[in-house]
From TrEMBL:
Organism per entry: Dehalobacterium formicoaceticum
Record-linked InterPro entries: Spore_V_AE, SpoVA
Keywords, comma-separated and alphabetical: Membrane, Transmembrane, Transmembrane helix
Domain of life: Bacteria
A Pfam entry, by short name: SpoVAC_SpoVAEB
Protein's name according to its UniProt entry: Stage V sporulation protein AE
Membrane spanning residue stretches: 6-24, 31-48, 83-112
Length: 116
């Protein structure tokens, strides 16, 4: 059942993104920004962590999980280091994922040629 709920939750997040594209005519950049902010807001309201417990990978893989991670990192560092921690916390908790994306993108660019 864990796989089923992960699939359903991840699929619903994707449906929301597709609705933003098709109905509201948002660009991919606007849609991505909306999803990150949605993850941060639901994390701030305490709703995203129970969603992760319920949906597993269906909630941790999509882009809205990145927004939740930004919020969680900012709040952890705010408690530890005060107001400066809000800025440093978002970089500290998400740096591994961002660094991995940059490194893998670099290697992909080395080995694959875009059609042009």
């Amino acid at each position: 059942m864990d796989f089923f709920w992960a699939f359903v939750a991840g699929g619903l997040i994707c449906v929301l993104g597709q609705i933003l594209f098709d109905v509201f005519k948002l660009t991919p950049a606007h849609t991505m920004t909306f999803m990150v902010v949605l993850g941060a807001v639901t994390g701030g309201l305490g709703l995203y962590e129970p969603f992760i417990e319920f949906a597993g990978a269906g909630a941790t893989v999509p882009i809205c999980s990145f927004g939740n991670s930004l919020f969680q990192g900012a709040m952890q560092e705010l408690k530890a280091n005060g107001l400066v921690g809000v800025i440093t916390g978002i970089f500290e908790i998400t740096s591994a994922g961002i660094s991995s994306a940059i490194i893998f993108s670099f290697f992909a660019a080395l080995f694959f040629k875009p059609k042009g």
